[in-house]
Amino acid sequence: MNRREFITLLGGAAAASPLAARAQQGERMRRIGMLTSLAADDPQASARDAAFWQALQELGWTVGRNLRVERRWGAGDPERMRKHAAELAALAPDVILVTGGATEWLLKATRTIPVVFVAIADPVAAGFVESLARPGGNATGFTTQEYSLSVKHLELLKEIAPDVTRIGVLRDANSIAGIGQFGAVQAAASSLKVELTPLGVRDKEEIEHGIAAFARKPNSGLIVTGTASTVVHRDLIIMLAARHKLRAVYPFSYFAATGGLISYGSDAIDQFRRAAGYVDRILKGEKPADLPVQAPTKFELVINLKTAKALGFKLPTSVLARADEVIE
């Protein structure tokens, strides 16, 4: 779904919903804030929003009837996310849905407004919640993965490319998630007899220079960790991996859908559907402190055969047989 279709969905929701037809005039209007680390024109942002709003409408909430929305996009820019977080906090909506790297800035801006976060790797280490079972503050939500998933990425890369002895790990050295995921891969590297090289993702230039320099030697592969920076720059990373003929494993299915070789990770869209349930419960009076942080329940292995063919690379039948989706 593109952004124009999403706007049409919101605009037509009140007329299309049978709940709206039965609504009484004067129904109480509630306000939701939304802040994402992605850009407004990012297709993944549109897909996430569509899943969230569909689920929320099924729970009886419709924009223009009983909901107003304040929407902000961070586009991977920390200063923009900080500014938008402060704006939303000043507006004091009933609840704020926040995604990925924008969560840090929002929780610096408010510790009183209820917050539901999505796409966070380690909210306890980041200081967003006291514990997964008992968040304890104004925030709760949904994690994307455990750090052990990064070890599976390493194992998967060695399974599809046994000749790989050098692995570059794209990670954000300034984020808890980036540090934790690289640490997990590092702990398992010696047993698989591979040499790791950390690669930065601060900006496009660092990504381009890092991958180009790393790829100069043979028997090289790439692991892309799941952080806000790698998601924002995913098109560039996928293009560079193809240009330098690197076998690469990615953290989410939408990387493979847009040209990445193979991905394994949680279903991000499913988490936004589930997040609608927490927003609904908070709007009906429950507190984030009493709603446990939830782990992913759906994982996907996606293979892009078009990319494999372009690389001149044949994937093992054992891996193809396990795939949830094969793109041809």
Protein model, in words:
This protein has helices spanning 3-16, 18-22, 43-58, 78-91, 102-109, 148-160, 176-189, 204-214, 228-232, 234-243, 253-257, 268-283, 305-311, 317-322, and strands at 30-36, 67-73, 95-99, 115-120, 139-143, 166-170, 195-199, 220-224, 247-250, 262-266, 299-304, 325-327. The chain is of the alpha/beta class. It has 2 domains: 3-144 and 268-298, Rossmann fold; 148-266 and 300-327, 3-Layer(aba) Sandwich (Rossmann fold), CATH 3.40.50. α1 runs parallel beside α3 (43-58). The two termini are 21 Å apart.
Principal-axis shape equals elongated
Beta-strand residue fraction: 15-25%
Name the CATH class of the largest domain. Answer: Alpha Beta
Query: How much helicity do the residues have?
Result: 40-55%
CATH architecture of the largest domain: 3-Layer(aba) Sandwich
Number of domains: 2
Strand tally: 12
Distance between the termini: 21 Å
What about the largest sheet?
A: 7 strands, mixed
- Estimated structural class: alpha/beta
